[in-house]
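We now fix the convention by which a protein and its fold are recorded. These numbers are not coordinates but entries in a learned vocabulary of local backbone shapes. A record is reproduced here so that you can trace the correspondence yourselves:
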Amino acid sequence: MGKFKVIISDCDHPAVEIEEKVFQEAGFDWELQQCRTEDEVIEHCQGAAGILSQYAPIKAKAIGKLPGLKVLSRYGVGIDNLDLSAATAAGVAVCNVPDYCQDDVSTHAFALLLDLVRKVTLLHNHTFAGGWDFSRAGSVPRTAGKTLGLLGFGAIARLVAEKALGFRMRVLAFDPYVKETDLAVELVGLDELLGQADFLSLHAPLTAETAKIINAGTLAKMKTGALLVNTSRGGLVDESALASALKAGKLAGAGLDVLSPEPPVADNPLLGLPNLILTPHSSFFSNESFAELKEKAARNMVEVLTGAKVRYCLNRSVLQV
């Protein structure tokens, strides 16, 4: 078996020493590029047996023009920039890192919720501007006894549920693929979730089923004065409809870590709203999660190319060939 060449197609991290160590220990040649388009991927990733990507689009066009490609790995959980169907048809394994930041994202979601409830950012800004008046917070609900709705009930949502139960909240969840749970969580339909939740937190993947699942129609079914948190994918939300709901007071506030697109365009209707908290897709980040992400994303390619047991593969059928 000859030496494999692997390429990091793009990466905005401060350093790639962790990935370098993984590749060197495997005896791989490796390169770091900064591709932004599919044509740049085709130009700069020739000869690669594996590509590790962050944002660079690697779709059917690129896959078809990269002979010898065996594995695509992505920094992160979602694979929006990759074409799973085209890769599978070409016999290329697609890997992600689904478990590196579960605790971090769940904590961030809960932090956004508590900030919205307790008006921490609002009161901080008021105080730093020279004020000293708790009443500027306006309505502040008590968290105990309130109903938290979880749209999606995977691993991260379960951790959010555990945190909420510790705050003595009632927890509901909607997920058509989950039929039972060992937690003190009530599994309900979508309409019931929307109608009963004081706080709604989104934890669904972005699919054809879930795109803009939060829209004018679903927002109308929510309680007046409810709070919305999204640490999943920006595409789950119709941002114009959400902006209208926030301006009209239908929702009391929203905490978002994700938008569509990112970073936001200048005319995004959500920007500048006083009852919105926005963070820059940072919920995944902690010192520990960042290192874990980099090591596992690189390790994916080593496992596929060396025939080792592959922990994280989204199209395992190609591994059997």
The chain has eleven helices and twelve strands. The domain at 5-100+287-320 is CATH 3.40.50.720 (Rossmann fold). The chain has two domains: 5-100+287-320, 102-278.
